[in-house]
Design a protein that fits this description.
alpha/beta; single chain; Endonuclease, Chain A; 5-stranded mixed beta sheet
Length: about 160
């Protein structure tokens, strides 16, 4: 399928995709702040410039878009065009995520990954459910936690 946009229009659209201050990131910030957690944003001296850093809890919170970071949820779909490019791009993002996560854990940081699907889509978590999972993950002694959407319900069987 041919792209309906000119290369200049496509370039402009792609340049407007944000890597920080996204709606999911703002939702996580609001939830954390309202529960009394304080954080720093995009700390440059940590690997990967994490979205949120909670120094008191020695915890890093990353807010990942399901498409850009290759999450296998209901929100993720491979594009129909330029599949080879997108597979390489997303695989590179996942490799970079793993490298940054390993380095953060080596430095003694705990990781919480919040996936976009936890906040968006038909399987998203209820707000109270999300807030409870987020608070529990930040306070947890586990080195890594993930918050994502509810599992797909099983198909109806008669």
């Amino acid at each position: 399928m041919a792209d309906r946009l000119t290369p200049e229009q496509r370039r402009l659209n792609m340049s407007r995709i944000r890597c920080r201050d996204t709606k999911p990131e703002f939702a996580v910030r609001r939830a954390l702040h309202s529960m009394g957690f304080r954080y720093r944003l995009h700390v440059g001296d940590l690997p990967g410039r994490p979205d949120l850093v909670l120094p008191k809890w020695r915890c890093v919170v990353q807010v990942h878009g399901c498409f850009w970071h290759g999450h296998g949820c209901a929100l993720f779909r491979w594009p129909a065009t330029r599949q080879e490019f997108w597979r390489e791009k997303i695989a590179g993002n996942v490799r970079r995520d793993r490298r940054n996560e390993a380095e953060l854990m080596e430095r003694g940081w705990r990781l919480v990954t919040v996936w976009e699907c936890a906040l968006k889509g038909r399987l998203r978590l209820h707000e109270d459910e999300f807030r409870a999972a987020l608070a529990e993950s930040v306070r947890s002694a586990q080195s890594q936690c993930e918050i994502s959407s509810r599992p797909e319900p099983p198909p109806y069987e008669a």
